Amino acid sequence: MLNDRGRVFREAWIAGVIKHYPGEPKPGYITPWDETPDWERDAATAVYDQVLSFLTATNGAAAKLTLEQKGRFVALCWIGQIFKHFPDPKPSYVADWDTLPEWQKATDIDIFERIEQDA
Fold it and tell me: What is the superkingdom listed in this entry's lineage (predicted)?
């Protein structure tokens, strides 16, 4: 599983996009893991690890978070990765939870819950 953490994150993202995105998603949203840029693979692995660490550090009690809290956590961890990899990101790349589209919120929630399954 060590090398698959980012892949699990990416596959949860793609599944969420397919499930929640209204209409036809942008190709970059559903790019398979093997074609995902290195920075994005690194970011996916890091966020997976952050969620898993959060669940572990709370002895699983983080599973009691509301759906919104779960999604917010994933979104904040992702924003941190964007700032790590891009010195001056576009504002849309680091948008706060309240401004994210509903499909993206739902996808972030799904990602947290997918990682919960591994915890």
Answer: Bacteria
Alpha helices for the chain (secondary structure H) = 5-20, 38-57, 67-85, 102-118
In this prediction, residue 119 carries a pLDDT of 85
Q: What local confidence, expressed as pLDDT, does residue 44 receive? A: 98
Three-class DSSP category at 98: helix
Q: What is the rounded distance in angstroms from the CA atom of residue 10 to the CA atom of residue 15?
A: 9
User: How many CB atoms are closer than 10 A to CB 35?
Assistant: 8
Kindly give the interhelix angle for 38-57 and 67-85, rounded to the nearest 10 degrees. Answer: 140
Tokens 């990101």 belong to residue:
89
Q: How far apart are CA 32 and CA 58, in angstroms?
A: 32
What residues in the chain have per-residue pLDDT under 70? 1-3
